Amino acid sequence: MDAYDEGSNARHGPVTPRRPAPPAQRGAPADSAEPDVHPGPEPEPIASDVPPGPPEPDVHPGPEPDPVAALVPPEPVAALVPPEPYPPGEPRTGIAALSPRYQIGVALALAVVAIGVCVHIGMTFLHVAPPNTVTREHGTAVDDWIYPEFEQNWKLFAPNPLQQNISIQVRAGVRGPDGMTLTTGWYDLSAEDGRAIDGNLLPSHTQQNELRRAWDFFVATHDSENRPVGLRGALSESYLRRITVLRLDRDDAVRAATGSSGVIERVQVRSRTSNVPPPEWSREKVSTTPSYRELPWWRVPQDEARGGMR
C-alpha cells in the first residue's frame, strides 16, 4: 500500500513539502528517473501540509522599506549657527570686494555727496520760499549760492505769463586807422543767443540768461525816460555796456566792417518788443507791430575799448 495514500491508517513520517515536478515530467510515470536539475527556491508549504498554529493577528502591512534608501547614510542635522555673510569660496562683489580702507573712502565720498545734495535742496527752497526769518538773516549767503548758475525763474507758472518777445540790439561807433568814425548797423544779440541755443542739448548759462538779466536789471533801475533811479542805475548801465562791447569785439561782422583794425568808441543799445501772436484757433486779436526803446549813446572808456576790462 502507498504510504502517501490519504485513505491509509499507516503512520506518516515527518511532513516535508513536496517539490512540484518539472513541466516536462508531470505526466511521466513515477518509477522514471528524475534528471539532475539544480534545485530552485523552495516553494512555500501548502496550507494543507502545515499543522495548524495559533491564528496570526490581522495587521495591515506597511510599505516595504526601500533597500537602496537603507544604504544611504542619513543627512547630518544642520547646527543652529548663523550662516556666514559670505561663505568661503564665493567671490564678493560691489563695495564688499574692496579692502576696508577703500570701503571707508567710498563711504566718506557718499556722505559728502549726500550732504552737498541736502545743502543745495535747502538753499533752493529758501530762495523760492516767501521771505522768512532765515532769508532775512542769511539772504546774502543764499543768493551767493544760487546766482548765477542755479537761478530760478517761475514766470512760466505765473497767473499772467510773459507774452512778449524782447530782443536786445546794439550798434557801435568805431574809429578806424584814418581817424574817421564809422557807425555800424544794428546787431541782434538776442538772435545770436537763440541760434546758439537752438538744437543744443547743453546750452551755456551765459547764452541763456546773461543778456536778458542785464536788460531786466537796467529796466528795473531806470524810468521810462532812461534816467537812473537810485544808486544802482549807474551800475546797471556799466554792466550792460560792458556786455555789448565784449560781444561786439568777438563779432566777426564788426571785424569785417572795420577791417579788424578799428577801436570801439561808443555804443548804443535798443530793445525790440513784439507781442506773441495768438494761436490760429483763438479769437484774440493783438498787434504784432514791434516797438523800440532806444537808449542814448554811451562813451566806451579806454580800458573797455579793446573788449572789456584789461
Structure commentary:
With 310 residues, this protein is of the alpha+beta class. Helices cover 32% and strands 12% of the residues. It contains 7 helices and 6 strands. It has helices spanning 67-71, 100-128, 133-146, 189-197, 205-220, 233-250, 252-258; strands spanning 164-175, 181-183, 187-188, 263-275, 291-294, 298-299. Strands 1, 2, 3, 4, 5 and 6 form a 6-stranded antiparallel sheet that branches. The longest helix is centred in the middle third of the chain and has 29 residues, at 100-128. Mean pLDDT is 76; it is low at 1-5 and 27-33.
Q: Tell me the span between the first and last alpha carbons.
A: 152 Å
* Strand composition percent: 5-15%
Instruction: Give the low-pLDDT segments.
Output: 1-5, 27-33
Strand and helix order: HHHEEEHHHHEEE
Q: Based on DSSP secondary structure assignment, what is the total number of beta strands?
A: 6
Shape category: elongated
Radius of gyration: 54 Å
